[in-house]
Design goal:
The complex is a heterodimer of chains A (144) and B (545). With 144 residues, chain A is an alpha/beta fold. Chain A has a single domain, classed as Rossmann fold (3-Layer(aba) Sandwich), CATH 3.40.50. In chain A, 46% of the residues lie in helices and 16% in strands. A 5-stranded parallel β-sheet of chain A has the order 2-1-3-4-5, with helices on both faces. In chain A, helix 1 packs across helix 5 and helix 2 crosses helix 3. Chain A is globular. The two termini of chain A are 17 Å apart. Chain B has a single domain, classed as TIM Barrel. Chain B is 47% helix and 7% strand. Chain B contains 21 helices and 10 strands. In chain B, the strands form 2 sheets. In chain B, strands 2-10-9-8-7 form a 5-stranded parallel β-sheet. In chain B, helix 11 crosses helix 15 and helix 13 packs across helix 14. The radius of gyration of chain B is 23 Å and the shape is globular. The chains are: A alpha/beta (144), B alpha/beta (545). At the A-B interface, helix 1, strand 2, helix 2 and helix 3 of A face strand 1, helix 3 and helix 17 of B.
């Protein structure tokens, strides 16, 4: 039997932002690193992303936001995940996010926000370090 | 919702070979030095006529910047219509001749500020315009017959333009006196920027209706700004930018001719918008090749007789995607080199990016430095004194020829698919760009492509730079204004006007008159867009990784 991927990840574009260059590169790099990646495509609502995340039983949701709407969209996704009993799904992301907004979002529970200049290797390292152990734990605690 | 599970990991990247270390950013191999033999069949006396002569490789005006300096046209817009109106009036008081309007994301997508999808985005990246009232506020006290206005709007361009025409009429301005530019380039939205509403074919009908209307009623208006900028920002190479942009241009010309217009009736009002990235000579060659190719297409393929139909007039913006968050002041020098390439390439107008744009919208100080960069090139460097100073250079002429050949290869592939709309429907440009973007990132990640401050010459403790913040109150105030409008206006008048839009969309009459009537009846942008969506349908992309 083929080995199960070390984590299942959702890469999402929320809101009206059409800048998908970064999201597509990250999705492809994570897939090439052996993770199972679900890419939502553009123009998703937070509700759509959370419903896909639960349906697909992902270990983490990664959002790419370059529209300036990060202060609304990240907390909204965190809130919806908690409301649906999926608070153990990690949320991280990247985009054009000023330092002070980034600090505030990390405080609210976003695990990491990558800003321009990040390499795909750094993102893969982060997923190995932070998401893979959580994925293992989630499976041991009864998730399929 | 259309989540797509990715297939198994693909083949690993091919190893870089030592032999082709010297290449342009598009991957064209470079010799160490160029000489007369590289001109090949090109006879400068025969094939390189002076600037201002067909095929305009060397520029579109005989004296270039001596006779007509390029226009410094910085793009701006933020917050509410009255915020941006104040900025516009300030810029005009400073002696700027033209305005360039940035709309916020909900407006760009044809949605009202109170649309569920607009949450958190109102007034963030540009100005929010929901109604004719907002459009009137945006241009209050600005004589629309005297200033030229550029509006960066695509999918809802016809509705926004209807509002602009209605605002001009309320000011008492004759439409024949209006000057300005609409981006109105929907094809590159499917390829790159992804701000669409309807599927490609009904979208093209909106474009042709608008152009036909302008030919009759707003003759000085630049109807489409055919844009490579966003294609490049999405990760294409310079060659792809050139090929796909010209393919879009040919697509519009074909659609407009098919709608019954004569090529010389509309072609003089088409303009272009290119990117200028880091590879100095490749960018110059791209602009020269673009002019030559367009002139030949217009004259030879479409039989245009008016020389204004042959000339490719272009705006250039330096490459936003080349800016780095690391050591942001280094961006000033990147922008300077890119702007210099744009000028040596013969642009008609130029936007220089600001050093802080990987963090947020620019601060006033950063925006001022960007303008100063252009003034430095114009007044201190001396490069603007001679038209096409690089003309005849062995390397530049060879690179211009090779860019043309490579772009022609892409155009032939698109022709064989049945044209650009069919190619878009097959996802061809989208896939090509995704590939190029991924391999560019791989080269940066591996250090094979050096980016100063990112993968070489890094500095750990760079002090943070100041950034602009947008007042979150803007969204609340815009929602209040929209709510008040909905309560005040006549509901039955709005419904009747929207029904007329639906009927026109389902038929073949020109959509502009019913669109103008609808916005004058105070229908909102979102309502008018929705009415057309009911007839035209909504575009859905199958994402390609």
């Amino acid at each position: 039997m083929p080995k199960a991927p070390p984590a299942r990840l959702l890469v999402g574009k929320v809101g009206l932002d059409g800048h998908d260059r970064g999201a597509k590169i990250v999705a492809r790099a994570l897939r090439d690193a052996g993770f199972e990646v679900i890419y939502t495509g553009l123009h998703q609502t937070p509700e759509m992303v959370v419903s896909t995340a639960i349906q697909e039983d992902v270990d983490a949701v990664s959002l790419s936001i370059l529209s300036g709407a990060h202060n609304y969209l990240f907390p909204r996704v965190l809130e919806l995940l908690r409301d649906k009993g999926a608070g153990d799904v990690a949320v991280f992301g990247g985009g054009i996010v000023p330092a002070e907004d980034r600090a505030r979002l990390l405080e609210k529970g976003v695990l990491e926000i990558f800003t321009p200049g990040t390499t795909t290797a750094q993102i893969v390292d982060f997923v190995n370090r932070e998401i893979v152990p959580r994925a293992r734990q989630r499976r041991q605690s009864g998730h399929p | 919702m259309n989540p797509r599970r990715t297939p198994a990991p693909s083949v690993p990247p091919p190893p870089a070979s030592a032999g082709d270390r010297y290449r342009t950013q598009s991957g064209l191999p470079l010799k160490g030095v160029y000489g007369p033999e590289d001109l090949g069949a090109l006879d400068p006396r025969r094939d390189l006529p002076p600037p201002g002569e067909y095929p305009f490789t060397r520029g579109i005006h005989p004296t270039m910047y001596r006779g007509r300096p390029w226009t410094i046209r910085q793009f701006s817009g933020f917050g509410s219509a009255s915020d941006t109106n104040r900025r516009f009036r300030f810029l005009l008081e400073q002696g700027q001749h033209g305005l360039s309007t940035a709309f916020d994301l909900p407006t760009l997508m044809g949605r009202d500020s109170d649309d569920a999808m607009a949450r958190g985005e109102v007034g963030r990246e540009g100005v929010a315009v929901d109604s004719l009232e907002d459009m009137e506020t945006l241009f209050q006290g600005i004589p629309l017959g005297k200033v030229s206005t550029s509006m960066t709007i695509n999918a809802p361009a016809a509705v926004i333009f209807a509002m602009y025409l209605a605002a001009a009429r309320r000011q008492g301005t004759d439409w024949r006196a209006l000057r300005g530019t609409l981006q109105n380039d929907i094809l590159k939205e499917y390829i790159a920027q992804k701000e669409w509403i309807y599927p490609p074919r009904p979208s093209l009908r909106l474009v042709t209706d608008l152009v036909a209307f302008c030919c009759r009623e707003v003759p000085q208006w630049n109807t489409i700004s055919i844009s490579g900028y966003h294609i490049r920002e999405a990760g294409s190479t310079a060659v792809q930018e050139l090929g796909f942009t010209l393919a879009d241009g040919l697509g519009y010309v074909e659609a407009l001719r098919a709608s019954g217009l004569e090529v010389d009736a509309f072609a003089p009002r088409l303009s272009f918008f290119f990117n200028c990235h880091n590879d100095f000579f490749e960018e110059i060659a791209k602009l020269r090749a673009a002019r030559r190719m367009w002139a030949r297409f217009m004259r030879e393929r479409f039989g245009a007789r008016d020389p204004r139909s042959w000339t490719l007039r272009t705006h250039v913006q330096t490459a936003g995607c080349s800016l780095t968050a690391q050591q942001p002041y280094v961006n000033l020098m990147r922008v300077t080199l890119q702007a210099l390439a744009a000028v040596l390439g013969g642009t008609q107008s130029l936007h220089t990016n600001c050093l802080d744009e990987t963090y947020a919208l620019p601060t006033e100080a950063a925006a001022t430095l960007a303008v100063r960069t252009q003034q430095l090139i114009a007044h201190e460097s001396g490069v603007a004194q001679v038209a096409d100073p690089l003309g005849g250079a062995y390397f530049v002429e060879d690179l211009t020829r090779r860019m043309e050949e490579e772009a022609a290869r892409l155009l032939a592939a698109i022709d064989s698919m049945g044209g650009i709309v069919a190619a878009i429907e097959r996802g061809f440009p989208q896939k090509e760009i995704a590939e190029a973007s991924f391999s560019y990132q791989r080269e940066v990640d591996s250090g094979e492509r050096i980016i100063v401050g990112v993968n070489r010459y890094q500095q750990e403790d760079a002090a943070p730079i100041p950034t602009l913040t947008i007042d979150p109150e803007v969204e609340r105030r815009q929602l209040e204004r929209l709510d008040a409008l909905r309560r005040r206006r006549s509901g039955s008048g709005v419904q009747a006007a929207l029904d007329a839009v639906r009927r026109a969309a389902a038929g073949t009459e020109n959509l502009l008159p019913p669109l103008i009537a609808a916005v004058e009846a105070e229908a909102t942008l979102g309502e008018v867009s929705q009415a057309m969506k009911e007839v035209f349908g909504e575009y859905r992309e199958s994402p390609v990784l």
